[in-house]
């Protein structure tokens, strides 16, 4: 990114500069944590939201997907805004925008209002996340410090999901679902004041970047149509004109997007970046991994609440082991594994453990108990996610030139978010289809729901294990001591 933190330009050897970098990192991570929480905090509250606002079972996924789609669709555009307007300015503006949208969601009187509010939240969230990562990767140049910082950021990105489920359960159980959105207000205000104080001032070159608004509109529209077609496929039928028309229109928009990017003077995504092997492989790994992980949080919460009849507070408390294990592995273990073994072994090991976690949930019975059928999966997911996320980010950034680090971070974040949105839509559709088949065969309602969740967990396990295999076979990351140049945004 053009807006480079001033602290990164100084020698990273003094205690003062080190403290300044880490303080800035914590503020950026707090802002990003607020954004990540909203991707999963709603999961526990979904049944309550459905009952209060009148959502159907299939449309309920839009409470999650509306946020994910606008978030992912505008990440790249937000990165370009950071180049043009300054990263600090975009971070502050996105935080303010997100905070105001959270108030609108918390006061939503109807289902359409909430879905629109979630979409608006996604716009603010995209601005915060795109420039937060771009600022963070410019703060740390030494391999060991960079690996540690990425471990902190990795916990925010991956562990935030588990924390969100826990917080969602506590707020919904003790108060009401509205508070899962209203809690963002004091956090957002605190981040705004802290960021103004600790983030380095913007240093941008006026007119250096042009915004590719058509590209952002095209890719966002294509993904929205695709997910809408998939989510509604079970109700409308998969070979109906409606479903095929939506998916076909999505494909056309994707094609137009690629053609536009190849000819645009200042493209949202210069197609040359897809010649970078590790960046492309990391995107594929990220899509599959995010599809599995987002679905895990969503489906696990439904299993606990709708199959095992847990109260919202109990669901949140059930996710404590995942949060604690993931926190430890992200903050204390991941960076050490990367520095000792390199990027690829921890990535493969972490994603494999995550795949096994989903496979265990695919075997969970309708009368399961927490210790035997839930806790092992929770622990495995915590270890796997805590270890894997840091190497995925480092692998993606390793081949990128300094002046394209912001673009690369936007591309990787987009892959994660779109993988999560599309994966969740696919697995919910798979679950609904299997449940409908079991109901038609005379299975009782709860057992049919559990059967649908089982098959969805199995598909998610395949996605996570495929990500591990692809990363292990095709990634060719540089040694950590050779990655200093590309990641440092001087």
Please describe what this structure looks like.
The protein has two domains: 12-200 and 208-212 and 266-487, Growth Hormone, Chain: A (Up-down Bundle); 213-265, no CATH class. It is 79% helix and 0% strand. The chain contains 20 helices and no strands. The protein is globular.
Structure keywords:
mainly alpha, disordered N terminus, Growth Hormone, Chain: A, about 500 residues
Outline of this structure?
This protein is an all-alpha fold and 490 residues long. 79% of the residues lie in helices and 0% in strands.
Low-pLDDT windows of residues: 1-13, 484-490
Q: Let me know the number of strands.
A: 0
For CATH, the homologous superfamily of the largest domain is named as MFS general substrate transporter like domains
CATH topology category name of the largest domain:
Growth Hormone, Chain: A
What is the percent of helical residues? Answer: over 70%
Instruction: State mean pLDDT (0 to 100 scale).
Output: 81
- What's the total helix number? 20
Strand content: under 5%
CATH class group of the largest domain? Mainly Alpha
Task: Give the SSE map.
Layout: H1 6-9, H2 15-40, H3 42-53, H4 62-85, H5 87-106, H6 111-139, H7 143-174, H8 179-182, H9 184-198, H10 213-231, H11 233-236, H12 241-263, H13 277-307, H14 312-318, H15 320-341, H16 344-361, H17 370-397, H18 405-440, H19 445-474, H20 484-487
């Amino acid at each position: 990114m053009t807006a480079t933190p001033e602290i990164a330009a100084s020698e990273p050897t003094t205690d003062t500069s080190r403290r300044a970098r880490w303080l800035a990192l914590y503020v950026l991570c707090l802002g990003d944590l607020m954004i990540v929480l909203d991707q999963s905090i709603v999961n526990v509250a979904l049944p309550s939201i459905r009952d209060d606002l009148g959502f159907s079972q299939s449309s309920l996924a839009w409470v999650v997907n509306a946020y994910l789609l606008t978030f992912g669709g505008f990440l790249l555009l937000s990165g370009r805004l950071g180049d043009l307007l300054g990263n600090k300015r975009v971070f502050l503006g996105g935080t303010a925008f997100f905070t105001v949208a959270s108030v609108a969601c918390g006061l939503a009187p109807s289902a359409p209002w909430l879905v629109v509010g979630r979409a608006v939240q996604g716009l603010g969230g995209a601005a915060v996340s795109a420039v937060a990562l771009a600022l963070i990767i410019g703060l740390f140049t030494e391999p060991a410090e960079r690996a540690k910082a990425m471990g902190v950021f990795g916990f925010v990105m991956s562990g935030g999901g588990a924390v969100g489920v826990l917080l969602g359960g506590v707020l919904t159980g003790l108060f009401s679902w509205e508070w899962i959105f209203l809690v963002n207000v004091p956090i957002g205000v605190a981040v705004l004041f802290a960021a103004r104080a600790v983030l380095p001032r913007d240093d941008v070159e006026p007119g250096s970047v042009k915004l590719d608004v058509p590209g952002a509109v095209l890719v966002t529209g294509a993904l929205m149509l695709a997910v809408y077609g998939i989510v509604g496929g079970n109700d409308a039928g998969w070979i109906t004109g409606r479903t095929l028309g939506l998916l076909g229109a999505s494909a056309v928009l994707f094609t137009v997007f690629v053609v536009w990017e190849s000819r645009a003077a200042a493209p949202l995504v210069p197609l040359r970046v897809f010649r970078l092997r590790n960046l492309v492989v990391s995107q594929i790994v990220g899509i599959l991994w995010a599809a599995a992980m987002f679905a895990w949080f969503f489906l696990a919460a439904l299993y606990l609440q709708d199959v095992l009849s847990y109260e919202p507070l109990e669901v949140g408390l059930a996710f404590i082991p995942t949060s604690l294990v993931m926190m430890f592995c992200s903050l204390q273990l991941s960076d050490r594994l990367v520095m000792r073994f390199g990027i690829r072994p921890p990535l493969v090991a972490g994603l494999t453990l995550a795949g096994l976690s989903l496979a265990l949930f695919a075997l969970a019975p309708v009368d399961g108990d927490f210790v035997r059928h839930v806790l092992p999966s929770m622990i495995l997911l915590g270890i796997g996610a805590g270890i894997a996320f840091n190497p995925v980010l480092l692998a993606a950034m390793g081949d990128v030139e300094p002046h394209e680090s912001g673009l690369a971070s936007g591309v990787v974040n987009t892959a994660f978010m779109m993988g999560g949105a599309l994966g969740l839509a696919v697995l919910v559709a798979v679950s609904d289809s299997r449940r409908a088949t079991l109901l038609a065969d005379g299975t009782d309602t709860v057992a049919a729901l559990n059967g649908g969740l089982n098959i969805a967990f199995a598909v998610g396990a395949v996605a996570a294990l495929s990500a591990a295999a692809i990363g292990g076979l095709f990634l060719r990351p540089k040694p950590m001591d050779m990655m200093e140049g590309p990641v440092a945004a001087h």
